[in-house]
Amino acid sequence: MTGGGVAHKRSFLALHDYGMGGSWWWVRARSERAVLGTFAWVEVVTDPETVARFEEEGLEEVDIDDPRMPPGLDGLRAERDAQRGREGFGALADRDIVHLGRRWDEEADEPVVF
Known about the structure:
Number of helices: 3
Radius of gyration: 19 Å
Number of strands: 4
Helix content: 10-25%
Order of helices and strands: EEHEHEH
Strand order of the largest sheet: 3-1-2-4
């Protein structure tokens, strides 16, 4: 932190895994949480071997505060912005384990056993 209370940015390796491949970027941000909170469907990769491999790949680097993002990342930011307006957004953030329950439509009020 500086005297103005602004944290320094550093580079995070971000991955959007779309199932049959993925898109990778270096994102300059103040924290991993900032990256996850700004872009939908993105994970921050921290595995040292993977990070080292991509340090030499020449990936595009973007600043999280830039108004324009490269193709792919721009849509993920727009999607996260839209999600922010939904009820319950972020309710499960920063939780390692989440237990979910489901109300059943059974007449006997018994859950269905699969």
